[in-house]
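User: Can you predict the 3D structure for this chain?
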Amino acid sequence: MSKLLAAAFTLALLTLCVAASDGLAQGRGGRGGGRGGQGAQQSPGATTAVYPPLFLREDWKFDKSVPNVNDEREPEHPIAPTDVATANLEVRLYGDKAGTRTVIQPYNKDITYVMSLLTTSNWLVTLRDKTNDVDLTGLSMWTWRTRVSGFHLLRPVLKLADGTWLVGDYGEGAHSANSTLFLESEVAIANVRWLPLDITRIVTRGQSWVEKPDLSKVDEVGFADLLPGSGHGWGGFVNVSRIEVYGRAVSR
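Assistant: Here is the predicted structure, written as C-alpha cells:
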C-alpha cells in the first residue's frame, strides 16, 4: 500500500510540473503572446514605426526682378509666386497679401524668409503641390525654421481636398522676450487639434474642435498667426525661413 501511495504521489507531482511547464511555454510563445505561436501578441513598442517620406520642402528664394521696397542692406518685397524655390510648388496668399513680405539678408549668408512684420490685418500663406494632395494621417509631421517675436504664435493651417479650412491649436511662439535667432521645431500632426477657419477674414469659426478631420487628402499646407504685424522695428511678427512636410503623396 505504501508503494502504491508513493507512486500516486509521484504521478501527481509530475502532472503538476508538466502543466506548469506548458503554461510557461504559452506565456513566452504560445497563445498568450510572444513572437511564436498562433495568435501571438507583440509587446508595446515591438513594431517598428514607419514614418512617411518628405512631401515638400521650401527654403524660399528672393526674386531680384521684383522691385525692392526696402533698403539695400535688407531687401524685401511682397511675396511673389517666383519666390518659391521648389519648381513643383506654388505659394498662395490670403488676407493681407500686400503686407506679407519676402526678405533676404545679404549680411547673414543670404538667409531668405517670409515675414508678417508689415501686415495690417490677418494673413495666411500656404504651399500647394501642383499635381498631388498629401496624406497627413498616422505619423505625418512637419518641421519649420522660424523666428517669432512678441506674443505672436505661428500656427499650422490646412485646406482639405473638399475645401474645408482648419487651423491648429499648436502655436510656435517666441523662445525669449527678445528672440533674435531662427530656431527649428517639429509638429506631430496627430497631436494637433483643429478649429474651422474662416478663409475670408482669417479668423476661427465656432468654439468646437473638429473631431476626427479627414486628413487623408490635404490640398494646401501653410501657416498664420491670426495677428497683424507691428511694422518695421523690433516688435511683434513671425518669420519662416524653411518648412518641411512629411506625408504620402496622393494623386489629385
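The chain has one helix and 16 strands. The first strand starts at residue 54 and ends at 58.
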